[in-house]
Amino acid sequence: MIRVLIADDQPLVRRGLALILAPDPAFEVVGEAEDGARAVALAHELRPDVVVMDIRMPVLDGVQATEELARTLPESRVLALSTFDMDEYVVAALRAGAYGFLPKDISPEELIAAVHTVHTGEAAVAPRLLTQLISTYVRVSARPRPPATAPAGLTPRELEIWQLLATGFDNAEIAGDLEISVSTVKNHITGIFTKLGVRDRAQAVIAAYESGLVAAGHASG
User: Fold this and answer.
1) pLDDT over 70, % of the chain
2) pTM confidence score
3) By the 8 A CB rule, do 164 and 219 touch?
4) Which of 17, 49, 94, 179 is most buried, by CB atoms within 10 Å?
5) CA–CA dist 220, 166 (Å, integer)
6) What are 2-16's pLDDT values in tens digits?
7) One-character DSSP codes across 64-127
């Protein structure tokens, strides 16, 4: 059973999210918080597996709350929520340690799938939405693209995969483009994360834009 804490300053939103998740035997909604400070306190008390966190809240906003939980309670993974698809606060939350992002107009099925995904440690953000968000809001370094001998000791193949990942390709698309297996792509991506010192796909994409590996407007599709 996945233990879920819901944090949103609007009571109707909290109740709606709880009503979606609670009937599913895979979930237990262990608490609700009306602001970021309360979310952090309840997370330490209740130890949820996933915190569904609104980005914009009073007292302590969702970005600051996410950063605090990532630092002090990393086993409670944050799924960020925003009213808008394109929101610079979402990028800040991903940078702070959120495992995924959903707009608030998603379907119940999408919410359930995202909570499951975040619980497994995977990033719950559509690759192309992720790159669109980051290319819009990340302040990209003015430095030129790194040479083929990439930073952090990446091999040429790892550099190639990092660039494809950062431009919005999912694992299957990377595998098809490079004519390798999906499992090989996953192995390379694990190595890329380790060498870059990032935790997940979102942070790897942010690092690619900040390093100059890809430029704003270069996201695919």
Assistant:
1) 84
2) 0.72
3) no
4) 94
5) 9
6) 999 999 999 999 999
7) HHHHHHHHH-TTSEEEEEESSSS-HHHHHHHHHT-SEEEETT--HHHHHHHHHHHHTT--BS-H
